[in-house]
Design brief:
This protein is mainly α and 74 residues long. The protein contains 1 helix and no strands. The termini are far apart.
């Protein structure tokens, strides 16, 4: 049935699989951390763009003249 050699081989195979799984898990964890950092950076950039867009809209309204706007029939 199960000889000590067979049991040792199975145990070694399980240890190898566990080692590869731990390595893959560490790699995936690093990817998730990097993606979270990218998301945070993109959210900050988006907030800055929204802020700049709000400032530009305010400046455009202040500089806009009714002379610059054509009536609808032109």
């Amino acid at each position: 049935m199960n000889t000590p050699t067979h049991t040792d081989e199975r145990l070694t195979a399980l240890e190898i699989k566990t080692s590869f799984q731990e390595e893959a898990l560490e790699h995936l964890n690093a990817v998730v951390v990097r993606q979270q950092q990218d998301i945070a950076r993109l959210q900050l950039a988006l907030a800055e763009l929204k802020h700049l867009q709000g400032q530009d809209a305010g400046q455009a309204d202040a500089l806009r003249s009714l002379r610059d706007e054509l009536p609808p029939h032109y």
